[in-house]
Amino acid sequence: MTHLGLLCPAETGHLNTMLPLGQELQRRGHEVTFFGIIDAKVKVLAAGLEFRSIGEVEYPIGSSNVLFEELGKLSGLAALKYTLDWIESSAKVFLKDGPDALEDANIEALLVDQISPEGGIVAELLDIPFVTICSALPFNQEPTIPPLFTTWKYDRAWWAVLRNQLVYLSVSPFAKSMNTLRSDYRKLWKLPPEISGDSPLAIVTQQPAEFEYPRQNLPKHFHFTGPYHNKTSRKPVDFPWDRLNEKPLIYASMGTLQNQLNDVFLAIATACVDLDAQLVISLGGASLEGLPALPGNPIVVSYAPQLALLERASVAITHAGMNTALECLTFGVPMVAIPITNDQPGVASRIAWTGAGEIVPLNKLTATRLEAALKLVLIDEKYRQNALRLKQSIAQSGGVSRAADIIELAISTRQPVNQL
User: Fold this and answer.
1) How many CB atoms sit inside 10 A of residue 300's CB?
2) How far is Cα 73 from Cα 166, in angstroms, rounded to an integer?
3) N or C, which terminus of the chain has less Cβ within 10 Å?
4) Assigned domain for 158 exists
5) What is the pLDDT of residues 74-99, one digit of tens each?
6) CATH code where residue 54 lies
7) DSSP single-letter state for residue 47
8) What is the CA radius of gyration of the chain?
9) Domain check: are 210 and 73 in the same one?
10) pTM, full prediction
């Protein structure tokens, strides 16, 4: 058996992808250790995995709460820039401290979130295999695939391809600092120039293939495996179940990062007032104290047992984070997406493209528009049918077990695991 290291941001969306993978690999007999800032420790230990701290000086306990609180107030490009700065800062810490930490723990292979490619560089330095895990939309760029931070529709027309390529070129300066950082460390450690930040052995994404635009240029060792979430990797959450009634349930969550946009929650509550349904709003861990009074008497909680509520939901209002979108589809729940930033617009566009929901862009959000979208999704059976179609594809995609099979084969053979 192998001692595996896990590396991903200490953020709920990424932890909820990586920790179930670690649990499955541990169940198969491997030793699994998560490497990250101290704020991730509680969730990692609750999942039954080992934990090693990285960067306690730069990221003392409570620092992620400060970071996420600021991010929760932002949207659009401002939030994207803030996220990129955070990613670069985290990369610097791991490149500095990661080699000694992994070597001291006798790590033999590494699972690296695609958003943390510095992990792959450290793995190369230590001559251990690594596998790339996509918690968000894949970063792999193709001319026909719209940038993940847009809600643009998939279109193979020449003008759409040109538009995509121009935007890819225009945003490349944002990644220049991060690319320079990685390049400098590769030179320092006398590693060859980087062709790709991804693993040459296997790249796995929790998306099912049916929830992605038609791809043409993905490497042969890229695998769509379906989501990894499970209830056991999350701590129990209290919820007033006795307040639920027999009306159709509308579950609303804007995730755990952009969770302080009170105008959004106000629009959601107002949009649902005249609907014959019951609204549950999760604030993604944010406090109820700063929330204004909401019309319609919705059930509002700081944090919700999301999977259990989705089992009952008729429709979900979501920021279109990848985890929430896939969890909705796992239960066949159609969505109305209000994307805020990062890859959420791209996830929302795939929700609409697959027919599993509608989009209400943040800059066009009003209670009236949102109510119209909710009525459409609640009444028109095609949305539910498309969500159920994706539910079936997820059930057949293999999930965490298939991902673990690929990982084990990649690290044991040190050879690319290509698609069949």
Assistant:
1) 17
2) 29
3) C
4) yes
5) 676 777 777 778 888 899 999 999 99
6) 3.40.50.2000
7) T
8) 21
9) yes
10) 0.93
